């Protein structure tokens, strides 16, 4: 596995603003990309990472909100309800955070990291992560939807704390017994 370069805004705006193309086939190359993206997400202390953020124009993202890593390939939101305002940041816009209004509950379909069809009912934080990453696949950044007055830059100490908490989560996850559930 390799740690990939993460696209940054505004330098890499072109790739971050493109609408991604569907994944046509699940190949060994796709699986390797997913593995590399998971490693990159962990290294950056993130909870989600979309393909365009690593310069790949494909409709897939990886995520881990504490239950282990997975991927969604060609994700589609088929149902959304409720509203919830929450703070978000982005690995492509380091240290910037802001409040974004998102649906509180979702039903999402797509393929998982094994290439199998899935239908996921997501609530709260997982729903927020899914919407944020699917936005990336459509060329939308969280700043496009954030309450403008809420946008703020993290201090050095706040950013260091965010990274420390993210790395603690990763260490806990790696130390947990491995269960390959499908």
Key descriptive features of the protein:
182 residues; alpha+beta; Peptide Deformylase; three-stranded antiparallel sheet; 8 strands; 29% strand
What string, H for helix and E for strand, traces the elements in order?
HHEEEEEEEHHEH
Characterize the main sheet: 5 strands, antiparallel
Overall mean pLDDT:
93
Give the terminus-to-terminus CA distance: 22 Å
Query: For the record, what CATH class applies?
Result: Alpha Beta
Could you give the count of β-strands?
8
Structural summary, described in words:
This protein has helices at 13-17, 28-43, 124-137, 142-145, 156-175; strands at 48-50, 60-63, 70-81, 84-90, 93-102, 105-111, 117-123, 152-153. The protein is built from five helices and eight strands; from the N terminus they run H-H-E-E-E-E-E-E-E-H-H-E-H. The protein has one domain (13-174): Alpha-Beta Complex (Peptide Deformylase), CATH 3.90.45.10. The chain has 182 residues and is an alpha+beta fold. The chain starts with 12 loop residues before the first helix and ends in a 7-residue tail after the last helix.
